[in-house]
Amino acid sequence: MADPQQENRAEETLHAEYRRLPAVDALLREPAIAALTACYGQELVTETLRELLAKARQAIGQGRPAPPPTAWPGLLEQALRQAHAPTLRPVINATGVIIHTNLGRAPLSQAARQAVDEISLGYSNLEYELDAGQRGSRYDHVRERLRRLTQAEDALVVNNNAAAVYLVLAALCQGREVLISRGQLVEIGGGFRIPDVLRQSGARLVEVGTTNRTHLRDYREALTPETAAIMRVHTSNFRQLGFVAQPALADLAALAREYAEAQGRPLWLIDDLGSGTLLDTTPYGLAPEPRVQESLAAGADLVTFSGDKLLGGPQAGIIVGRGELIGRLRRHPMARALRVDKMTLAALDATLRSYQQGRAQAEIPVWRMIAASLEALRARAQGWRQALLDWGVPPALLSLRDDESAVGGGSLPGETLPTVVLAVHADQPSQMAARLRAREVPVICRIQQEQLLFDPRTVLPEQDPVLLDTLREALVDGAETGHAQG
Ligand SMILES: *Cc1c(COP(=O)(O)O)cnc(C)c1O
């Protein structure tokens, strides 16, 4: 069946191809490669060359030819650049989802970025009292501002809201029961499930009510001497409609107080708001997202919320409420494991300052995006289209469309804001989207049927030139040259 002569010839070609692969030492002596060594270091260059040669050997084994000798400096430079590039990179969010968890949630304000820069560049009084010249607490830095903004007795900041919920339960409810409505046993995303966190904290979950309806009497009937707390969890990422009921927070607070007095021992009311907000969302045509200060006023003993959802700051978990309880959380051993660093505190403090000065809508990107008017968005989308037309993009490929942006980030599920998007027609939309993601500054957009949609609401104004340049290349140059990916 096999022809021995033909087999021999095939073997000889294979050997010839292998022999065309240069030795590492020879490559290192080439001037173009020596220049790369000066830039990236001998070790990384040698290692990368070995990897490239191994890959070439493998390719030859699969019947492909060896790279020509002149190709090596180019191959090496490309591989080095790839190895050296940061994996965490800025992207342009043209999806219209404002708090996009996959894309880093809230962009920081100018003031917050500046504060991070100043504090991270050198030493700071992170845990040092400048007046007394002695050791201080990192928790003091944003405490006063959070107290004033929310009218809470005290405040504590930890790594994120998941950590905040965990710390509250571990410190106050370990080994005891926590009542939660069956309609609030939520999964937030990324595997964060309230029942799991509760179990991990050492508290015992007691489910009350039904999936759609929970009444005050359901809570009352579930109370035992083992009950440490009633917890309300904001159903952040879904919405219940129809025959549904939940008691008001104020009624839960009254029940907790009444029971605590009758039993002569505390029963805490914990409110996990998820996003939470300090500002009213209704002036923007959105449903009311619960406000932190309202939860406290309604009688919650502790309220937990995220720093990088509607607050618009850095990743953090904020706990506000009763001073005595915050003190217990601060002294709990897990507080150290969940603590935030100086960059977070700097960014959070600057973000909170914008709220105190009444400048949140003007300065905090998340709120600027929410507040952007339809006219302003239309004008920007029109500007994008015009710039692309001026560059010679065929008019038939571009149109403007009324569409909807979303707040996202586990707040206001199903709520949208009217917007105007630039729609780009493409024969192979998913391939074009992949090309846009492969750019040095990747552009992430939405695909709908044959169109790529770009929502100006979530594109930072300073990113416009890069976005337009990317689109121009994809639509003009890319169309002509086939645009190599990479
Ligand atoms: C988002 C969310 C969390 C988790 O907050 P992170 O800051 O992402 O850790 C917890 N609870 C609720 C209700 C949430 O919406």
UniProtKB/TrEMBL annotation:
A GO MF label: L-seryl-tRNA(Sec) selenium transferase activity
One GO cellular component term noted in the UniProt record for this chain: cytoplasm
Chief location: cytoplasm
Pfam families the record matches: Se-cys_synth_N, SelA
Catalysed reactions, as listed in the record: L-seryl-tRNA(Sec) + selenophosphate + H(+) = L-selenocysteinyl-tRNA(Sec) + phosphate
HAMAP family assigned: SelA
UniProt function note: Converts seryl-tRNA(Sec) to selenocysteinyl-tRNA(Sec) required for selenoprotein biosynthesis.
Protein name per its UniProtKB record: L-seryl-tRNA(Sec) selenium transferase
Source species of the chain: Litorilinea aerophila
Source lineage: Bacteria, Bacillati, Chloroflexota, Caldilineae, Caldilineales
